[in-house]
Amino acid sequence: MGLKSDEEIREERKDRKEDPGFFNYGEENEDVGEDEDFQGDDLPSAGHGEVDQHRELREYARLAAWELPMLHKLAQPFEPPDKTTPLRFRYTTYMGEQHPASRKVVLEFSPSELPDLSPLQTAKLIKLAGPRYNPSLNLIKMSCESFETQAQNKRYLGDLVYKLLKTAKDASTDNFEDVPADFRHHKPKPFHVFPERWKLTPERRKVLEEKRVKELQDEEAKRKDGSLVDGASVISEALNRLGMREMLEKREREKLGSGNAAARPGRGRVTGGAGGAKRF
């Protein structure tokens, strides 16, 4: 029986019917053909992934080199918001990818900055906002991510603010004058005020530097006089008095001698006398 050639083996593989498995059943995609046999003349899948990543990096490099310098034509000076735009929307954008959190829109506004609101209506609006009101910052904060796009979530928040304002201005409804404002949801952060004498002024910094220099000079003088306690010398003197210095040195010599006599890793041990050396 002779060996089969590569062509015959490939023909047998094509004719062989294999079970596609449970996850591969379904409609066949006509646009995707059969995988060709690997002939050793192409990159593997991991290599193609690296090449695709390199192409993407080169594309961003070209944009940075040629497109970014042209953006200065579209630059506009920053103008802080005025009283006609009290609502502030915040978005989250993930560059180059789609993320579920990118649909979220956050709205912040101050009740005192809203036009055409009396103090009674402002207090009613704060009570209607409930736990969304921050008394420390005087801000109402709410967010929405129930819809698929940012525009839908922004529109929902705008309608919600419109309903709150309409209810706060409606004199036919209850003004909640007899209901106290409930701020139990807000836990204010403690702010500690340190004494003035604790602050590091230039004069105090100079005094501390002079103190450190004086301590270093005193330590150097003690070292020269021999009055400075040296831990290493104290231990050495104690060992000499107890007669343990010679014993420790003997142990160190034995360790060094046993280390030199031991066989090196990866090499055999040589034995034998005049009759010949053997390695095993």
TrEMBL record:
GO terms for molecular function: structural constituent of ribosome. Residues 27-40 have a biased composition (Acidic residues). Residues 1-20 have a biased composition (Basic and acidic residues). It holds the Pfam family MRP-S28. Residues 1-53, 251-280 are annotated as: Disordered. Residues 269-280 have a biased composition (Gly residues). Coiled coil: none annotated. This is Small ribosomal subunit protein mS35 mitochondrial conserved domain-containing protein. It comes from Tothia fuscella.
